[in-house]
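Human: You know discrete backbone vocabularies at least as well as I do. Show me how you would write down a chain together with its backbone fold. No explanation is needed for now; the record alone will do.

Assistant:
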Amino acid sequence: MLVTVRRLFGHMLVYGSGEIVLFAVNFLLFPVYTRVLEPAGYGALAVLLALRAFLRPLNQLGLDESFLRFHYDCETDADRHALTGTTLLTIGAASTVVLGAFLLAAPLLSPLLGGPEHTGALRLLAVNGFLAAFLCVPHGLLRARNEAARFARWTVGGGLAVAALRLLFVVALGWGVFGVMLADVIVSVVLLAGLLPVAGHPATWRCSRRLARDLLRYGGPRVPHAILRQTLGQADRLLLRLYLPVTAVGVYGAGATVANTLSMYREAFRRAWMPLAFERMSDADAPQQFARLATVAFGVLVFATLGVALFAGPLIRWLTPPGFHDAVDIAPLLALGVAIHALTVFLTTSLNVSKQTGALPWATGAGALVTIAATVVLVPRLGMAGAALATVAGSVTLVATLAVAARRCYPIPYELGRLARIAATGAALFAAVDLGPRDASPIDVLLRVGLLGAFPLVLLAVGVLDRGTIRQARRLLAPRRRLDEEPST
């Protein structure tokens, strides 16, 4: 069988443990931030995080994915040393330029955050982006070696350290968003010192101009793709700031914080899936197994999306002061946008396997254009809800365009009938929440729990889960020789 589902979903749990801890930490800090920072301060933090997302692809030039893909083409230690050295030196050159430019531009960008008092936080943001860019090489090596547990330990440790330092700087010392950025810089220094040895001794690194060109040719299209993707995911906050005060951005950011808990599933699946896909891409029945995995993964995604959409309102009411409660109405829409965007993980498999990444900027460009246009049209009329609808429209455009490109370069026979039934089940159950009071009362919460629990039962009733699927899942999950054991760490 092509795909060792046991290994894939086992690694998802391990990779996901890091993501879960990080999101749990951020979520636990969420009620702290909303009380210590107030809506204006939380809005400044939301803008900073949006800018951070745009800096990352500029610092890395798409070499994070290039490194992982080309690692599977290396046949000797000399090839791997050349790949490591070339990647690190190229990232160093690019991120140095970005760091210098952003340090100079920080005073000009500070009005976006509310005033010149945030210039220091912007500069710390640039320093952290410079440091974090180098982590993609040791992270890529741990993923390629299937050292998921070691990867997760560093991720979890870093997340806990960030949380502790942010509490110290923001709550105890009252340093606001500057303290948030300072905590990130300190932890990035520690992670870099601890993880760079994974890449070997610097004396073994080599640099190749030819290899650098090949890496940039593969990863280069990912830079505009990543920037445009961040436009899809972050431009709503930046554009919202042009129409509404920074306090509204803070409220919107509160809804986005709850909705973005879905990102932990997307990131865990992406990190576990791509190395395995590269290992098995030459097998004869690869497309069929990719399609079956897509159905399983989509079912889990819809279940998670339904959970976030159902409980976003009660969580916001319980965890934040009244000034943030307007986020209740936009959080489900934002969760839908995150879920639609997550579908790109499987679609990009076709482009990565065939090395035809040139379609990525076109697909994300179409999505970003729709997002910007919809934001300009809808925000003046609908306010925050207009920005949320714009992100959904942009994500739909991205997925549709990417699906066309993926089918042309490496067709995967997705089980469209089952996928449609899964999506319809989730939508119907979410719509049924209107039957309750929607006031975060015990009766309201019980209704939401019941609707979420009904999801797998409805899938059985409509035939998405049948005996054949269950029988095949048992075969895939049955004990087998442990060929895919992780190396000891």
